[in-house]
Amino acid sequence: MPDEHPRVAVIGAGIGGLTVAGALTARGFPVQVYEQASAFSRIGAGIQQSANAVKVLRELGLEPTLRARGFVPASFVHRAAGTGEVTNDIPLGARAEGRYGAPYLALHRGDLHDVLLAAVPAGAIHRGRRLVGLEQPGDGVELAFADGSRARADVVVGADGVHSLVRETLFGPHELRFSGKAGYRATLPASALGGERLDDNTKWWGPDRHLIVYYLTAARDEVYAMGTVPEPDFDLESWSAKGDVDVFCAAFADFHPTVRTLLGSVPLVHKWALADRDPLPRWSDGDVVVMGDAAHPMMPHMGQGAAMAVEDAAVLVRCLEAAAGDWSGALRRFEETRRARTSEMQAISAGNSFARTGKDAVDFVYGYDAWTTPLAGAPAPTTTSTPGGNDR
Ligand SMILES: Cc1cc2nc3c(=O)[nH]c(=O)nc-3n(C[C@H](O)[C@H](O)[C@H](O)COP(=O)(O)OP(=O)(O)OC[C@H]3O[C@@H](n4cnc5c(N)ncnc54)[C@H](O)[C@@H]3O)c2cc1C
């Protein structure tokens, strides 16, 4: 009979891996995290963490630091590319906090990662350890790393991102589906805008492209712009690949003057080929499971990819806590609890129409609470604490 708490190995110290490791640590599970990178760098990118994600991170004690490092937009404005006409304006700030039970935050991706690192004991994070193989000989899981080292665990969580080796080992190759769109990302000091006034958080909608712009800090001194542009021949999926600033600006030349002023101030741009996959039929095999982008990569258009990884973390920990020694059963319960929601997010994200107009409901996204959503096989609660929360 295994111990009450299995020894858990998490592969990948990204957003999902650190969140699940932090949540496991907080609940007394012995956990080790293995990350291929030898150091973490502050990649130029913003990230939005909506209330559904912040509710998870709050339980790890991270909310005060996240608020201090990030920005709480008052609303999320959707505008027509050329005229700037407002097509939707979603209240955020205190109004969203009251409605969903947690703030909606925008912050630098590097700052989010930094805050998450603090939730895991430093000695439990092993950098420079690239997983190259895993086996389940019948008693636990054996891990092999590129540096020749090995490790054992009772449960292995593959939080190793879109190119997951854990997923490939369990289920074989599963090609990425490139969208034919490139994502251009830039961060810049607000002072570079020469006094141009921006909304707190905007999505500018063109016919075949869009631009998302928001502040990254409470002081509004750093701005993030992420533009999606058709580029059918581009398929380099990398955080560090650079783009051409002139090409980025030209792609939005017929957008509103505010956009042109903003892009005209961009010093450097990175570029990413946007890709996703169809939902996987299974996420676990025996005592090994995948989560986050390893399980359900999606287009970034709803800003929910990392939020889904963060939600996964809470549900996975709850399933392990309730497992009574049946770890593989807990992993199956986890995937059964999560698959419908993440598949829906993958589909909506691929369609790229979410919240463009006020007709779209957003409550079911932001109102979800991963700490209270019913686990598969458990009776549904009679009430929900937040609007639209956990109802689909
Ligand atoms: C342009 C863009 C904008 C986005 N904006 C948002 C947003 O605003 N809000 C949001 O919620 N989401 C957003 N996303 C999605 C979000 O970035 C991802 O969904 C999220 O990073 C997934 O987290 P993860 O932990 O699953 O994977 P990752 O964060 O990719 O982490 C995987 C980790 O595993 C490590 N690893 C990989 N292979 C191995 C191995 N073999 N051995 C050891 N370690 C390994 C990697 O080095 C990495 O550290 C955006 C995505 C893009 C591309």
Automatic annotation (TrEMBL):
Report if keyword Oxidoreductase is assigned: yes
**Keywords assigned:** FAD, Flavoprotein, Monooxygenase, Oxidoreductase
Coiled coil where? none
Domain named FAD-binding: which ranges? 8-341
According to UniProt, the name of this protein is FAD-dependent monooxygenase
Question: Which GO terms of the molecular function aspect are on file?
Answer: monooxygenase activity
Under InterPro entries, the record lists: FAD-bd, FAD-dep_Monooxygenase_BioMet, FAD/NAD-bd_sf
List cofactor names only. Answer: FAD
